[in-house]
Amino acid sequence: PCAVQLAAAEHLAWCWLPWSQAADKVFSPSNAAAIRALGQRLANAENG
What we know:
Blueprint: H1 19-25, H2 29-47
Helix pairs in contact: 1-2
């Protein structure tokens, strides 16, 4: 794992979620699409 440092002025509330829940919570449709695409890539890699 790598260390994560957030910009305190931008990220006042945060939490780690499974990718499917995170995609449902983000404001930006493009961010939701990116999260879903990453989730699918990870699932495909696990199923080889």
